[in-house]
Design goal:
Elements lengths: L3 E4 H4 L7 H8 L4 E11 L3 H7 L7 E10 L2 E11 H4 L13 H8 L6 E10 L3 H7 L7 E9 L5 E9 L4 E4 L7
Parallel strand pairs: 1-8
Antiparallel strand pairs: 2-3, 3-4, 4-7, 5-6, 6-7
């Protein structure tokens, strides 16, 4: 049995609740997540570029550890422009009813599409290895996702670092005429 099947679109749809736990349960497992941090930060360069934020600017970051059973399986760090996420539940270290995607939809930010860059054979940083309880030379999958509105405005940048063993990523490619 697969430990988890990830379908990107399900994570971008409002009203889904804890999509991670639901997906793992559907695959016959037990999934949970722990919010490590929710705060204002200076964005990494790639996030600043993706969101159109000055490199020395400020964004809201929500950092989570996703678990398969009792084991850490991935780190999911999401970043939002301050003008969207400031003074909202996104910058508080509590669970958000319906999830961040639902809150963003209530704020008028609904995903039309996401651009993803996937590194299939990277290595974790020392901090990532410690959080995932793996050796630093272990291969990980790193996904950098930028979520955009129908008008093409970016409103979320997420970096996912996952242990690939037993995981399947499902992507649907839509070809428009």
């Amino acid at each position: 049995m697969e430990r988890g099947v990830d379908d990107t679109a399900s994570y971008l749809t409002p009203g889904g609740g804890d999509t991670w736990a639901q997906a793992v349960r559907a695959a016959g497992g037990r999934g949970s997540q722990k919010l490590r941090d929710a705060t204002r930060v200076t964005p990494p360069d790639w996030v600043a570029d993706a969101l159109g934020v000055p490199i020395a600017g400020t964004v809201v970051a929500r950092r989570r550890t996703m678990y398969l059973g009792d084991d850490p399986a991935e780190l999911t760090d999401s970043f939002y422009p301050l003008e969207i996420a400031g003074h909202t539940a996104l910058e508080h270290p509590n669970r958000i009813p319906g999830g961040a995607v639902t809150l963003l939809a209530h704020l008028g930010y609904v995903a039309d599409h996401a651009d993803e860059a996937v590194d299939l054979a990277g290595h974790p940083t020392k901090a990532e290895a410690a959080l995932l309880a793996i050796k630093p030379n272990t291969r990980v999958v790193r996904i950098r996702r930028v979520v955009k509105t129908a008008a093409g405005a970016p409103f979320e940048a997420t970096e996912i670092v996952m242990i690939p063993t037993g995981r399947t990523l499902h992507h649907r490619v839509v070809v428009e005429p």
